[in-house]
Design a protein that fits this description.
The protein is mainly beta. It contains one helix and eight strands, in the order ββαββββββ.
Length: 133
Amino acid sequence: MEISGKLLCLVSSRVERRNGSYVVEIPESEIEEGDLREGEVYSIGVLGSKKAKRGDAGSGGGGTQLQPPVEEGEIRYVEIEDLGKQGDGIARVERGYVIIVPDAEVGDRVKVEVDEVKENFAVGEVLEEDAFD
């Protein structure tokens, strides 16, 4: 399966029925990071629907939890594509997963060490600027 380069974010969420409709919740962090805007219309793709076991990380009783594509301590070479609301650099890696890079500007190509990993984003520290040269 090929995932479009237009992918803005990737979340794992349970499909719930509310007032005669089905709803997929999007974490507030996706709005806060500027990936999505409230009131806009987006295309949504479904990647899988295996039952998660109780106690699995991120299992809300719904679909399988996709693990973040990075780990703490991992070194990545990324290009800063955008700025977050606090002015931090935003890079996207596999599946549109976001790495927040403080002290980076749009267009910077940097070597980062991943310091913190969350379900929907990670935070990385710049180790080297102009890292693609």
